[in-house]
Amino acid sequence: MLTSILIILFLAVIIGLVLGFSSVQFKVEGDPIIEKIDSILPQTQCGQCSYPGCKPYATAIAKGDADINQCPPGGEKGVRALAELMGVEYKPLNESHGISKPKAIAFIDEDTCIGCTLCIQACPVDAILGAAKQMHTIIEKECTGCELCLPPCPVDCISMEPIEENAENWKWKYPVYSISTSKKRVN
Amino acid sequence: MKLLDKIFKFNGGINAETQKNISTKNSIKSLPIPSEIRLPLRQHIGKMAKLKVKVGDQVLKGELIAEADGNISAAIHAPTSGIVKSIEKLLIPHPSGLPDFCVTLIPDNNDKWIKKIPIDWKKIGIEETNKLILNSGIVGLGGAAFPSHLKLGANRNNPIKTLIINAAECEPYITCDDMLMREHGKDLVEGIDLVQSLIGAEETIIGIEDNKPEAFKIISNLIEKKPNIYIKVVPTIYPSGDAKRLIFLINGIKIPKEKRSSEYGIQMFNVATIVAIFRFIQHGEPSLSRIVTITGNIKEPQNYEVLFGTPLQYLIKDAGGQKIKNNTFIMGGPMMGFKLPSIDVSVTKTMNCVISAEPEMIQAPEEALPCIRCAKCAEACPVSLQPQELFWLSKSDQFEKAQNYNLFDCIECGCCSYVCPSNIPLVQFYRYAKSEIIAQSIATEEAGIARERNDFRILRLDREKKERAERNAQRKAENTGVDKLKLIEEKRAEISAAMDRIKNDKKLNND
């Protein structure tokens, strides 16, 4: 009797120590589900989902405040990936948040630009270079195509240029070929 | 010289009609300088070459037109002397049919060389030699166009023990390497000696298919007195010329996925690449031309020594034109090549063969039938993949699963499509899936950068806010000087005196 109690007690102490140690040592910082959702989102930071950025939207999805179909840049593929991650049914993109369109990058007409810095303040990824009363320009590589710089521009000198297909970013297309049924072949 | 007997046979592969003797009847012909040369700036794997000339510049033969941009890139030189006419986007021989940046050169027909400087590599050392090779414009001439200096310099961590020379040339129709060995065997063997010392290999094995007896004879005679160079005849099974397949055939070493042969002490070069390296080091001649096979439905099928940038039409015209006019040409072999989107392109470093399409090659393919799961493709796959699984997964966009089935090990050799009784264009599905996955991974990478920049911006805005708050607090503190304190104290005293008075008044009234 006493031995069994001692054994159980001993085990309890050991397991308690291990669990206590690992809860301190292997503590998970932040919420892993938010990180996972955030990694699916396209990081355009455009705010079309009605949240101020991708991370806040990810947080809202994790909490259950937002739906999974509010991200137009992510498109259908993004919604499908989110549906799979969250274990919910797929639903088509909510068009009140905008429609999915091919990626474009902003272009500043440098002759018209007056150097007001309003677009620089609007850019969520600091992709616009310039200073007060100096011409501004877009750092092409960093632009996410969020279009947040368009409304503040007082002289409408920013336009969105869709990314052109070239020999470098060209992709093999989905093969299209005719399929005949075996029946047809017999005839 | 030693004949190595043991052959390690890989799984699958196919025995197709080789059709090689069509183009080996004549010796290699030099094509005269064309009236216009059009050099695409992207003829290799890696970054586009950086332009070094401007419109109107006079260039000499061998002068640098564009230099390598970074390490994974290759330079481009003027194939003959002339004047730069334009720099614009023109059609290039690429399956997309999209234009890319090209330099157009008008030759002056003097063919005047710049000063050729042979490299004394023993004196300047391997490191320095490799730096020079970076701007020699030499890329793998077997068709992959991988910059050669990367392969020559890859032995820093893993010493290279064996140099393997790829002379298999397994695709039907192509004979450029065969003819090169027959006619430039001496350069090749001297080049092997050179590259072997450059990469510090102990031995060299030339892997050649048994359908090239003439080339075999010439090369084995040349290496008879070389103790460290061996030649090994491999059976004619497509795709024995694939790097990893050839290594297995010769050494029995299976290179695992995502590993390079250099990690196993093996480095491989194509015969034409070896000759190009030899000419650069021995004579100071950069990569300006290559041997191109023109064959198939053409009047005079043969091999040509062609300057890079020569218009394809010029080559077709010299070969007598098509026998049956259909204006369709295939670049590369019939298994892995692609239909040229237009014949208005120029010869590039990757163009080892041009096949004028036989009428049956361009007939509408027989209608595809549904997959009957016969697994013939799996039997034919030289990489031992499960092509039928990859087909279903690629077809339904299940890219992650396709990757788990080792999609990226697929060498796109086309054996599966060749044997498929249902005529399904399997390789096209793999190419589609691969390019989608690559595009996705680039997008993920870009998203990562955007996330970082956004996080930093939020951090910066927070910091600025805090700094502003601190500044305001400081300003407030500065305003609260000694005088102000005194004033406040006086006022406080006055107030308390007044309060006392009121209290006293109340007391008096109550009493």
Description:
- The complex is a heterodimer of chains A (187) and B (511).
- With 187 residues, chain A is mainly alpha-helical.
- Among the domains of chain A are: 32-97, Electron transport complex subunit B, putative Fe-S cluster (3-methyladenine DNA Glycosylase II, Chain A, domain 3), CATH 1.10.15.40; 104-162, Alpha-Beta Plaits (2-Layer Sandwich), CATH 3.30.70.20.
- Chain A has helices spanning 2-25, 32-40, 54-63, 75-86, 118-122, 182-186; strands at 104-108, 128-129, 137-138, 158-162.
- In chain A, helix 2 (32-40) crosses helix 3 (54-63).
- In chain A, 23% of the residues are buried.
- Chain B has helices at 121-134, 148-152, 176-183, 185-199, 213-222, 243-251, 271-283, 312-318, 359-362, 376-380, 387-395, 399-404, 415-419, 426-479, 482-510, and strands at 29-30, 37-40, 50-51, 58-59, 64-67, 76-77, 82-91, 99-107, 162-167, 203-209, 229-234, 266-270, 289-296, 302-307, 329-331, 338-339, 353-356.
- In chain B, strand 10 (203-209), helix 5 (213-222) and strand 11 (229-234) form a beta-alpha-beta unit.
- With 511 residues, chain B is an alpha/beta fold.
- Chain B has four domains: 1-27 and 120-284, NADH-ubiquinone oxidoreductase 51kDa subunit (Rossmann fold); 312-362, no CATH class; 369-480, no CATH class; 487-511.
- In chain B, the strands form four sheets. Chain B has a six-stranded mixed beta sheet with strand order 1-14-13-17-15-16, with helices on one face. In chain B, strands 2-8-7-4 form a four-stranded antiparallel beta sheet, with no helix packed on it.
- The radius of gyration of chain B is 34 Å and the shape is elongated.
- Chains A and B meet through loops of A and helix 14 of B.
